[in-house]
Amino acid sequence: MKKLISWAIVAFLFMQICWAAPAFAGDAASGAKIFSARCASCHAGGKNIVNAQKTLSKVDLEKYDMFDLEKIKTQVTNGKGAMPSFKALLKPEQIEDVATYVLDSAEKGWKK
C-alpha cells in the first residue's frame, strides 16, 4: 500500500511539473505598460489590425513558430514586414518585458 501511495504522489508531482504554465524571463507587469503605450494601437487584445490572420493568440504564435521569447524579442527589436523596429525606442530589458507580457497573455487567451 505504501508503494502505491508513493507512486501516486510521484505521478501527481510529475503531472504538476509537466502541465505548469511556462516561466518567462521578463517582467510581465512592466511589459503590459509598455505594450499599452507602444503596441496596443495595432495589437489591442492580442489582435493585429494590419494582418488579421496573424494575431498574438497562442494558436497563431505557434502556427507561425513564434511562441518563443527570443523570437518575439527579435521581431520587436528588428521589426518585420509592416511591423516597425523598436530598437531605437525601447531598451533591451523593455523589449524582454514586452515579449514576456505577450507570451503570458497569449497563454491566458488575452484575458485579464
TrEMBL record:
Keywords: Electron transport, Heme, Iron, Metal-binding, Photosynthesis, Signal, Thylakoid, Transport. GO terms for cellular component: plasma membrane-derived thylakoid lumen. Heme c binds at C39, C42, H43, M83. One of its GO terms (biological process) is photosynthesis. Binds 1 heme c group per subunit. GO terms for molecular function: electron transfer activity; heme binding; iron ion binding. It holds the Pfam family Cytochrome_CBB3. The keyword Transcription regulation does not apply. Residues 1-25 form the signal peptide. Residues 26-106 form the Cytochrome c domain. It is found in: Cellular thylakoid lumen. InterPro entries: Cyt_c-like_dom, Cyt_c-like_dom_sf, Cyt_C6, Cyt_C_IC. Belongs to the cytochrome c family. PetJ subfamily. Functions as an electron carrier between membrane-bound cytochrome b6-f and photosystem I in oxygenic photosynthesis. Monomer. This is Cytochrome c6. It comes from Gloeothece verrucosa (strain PCC 7822).
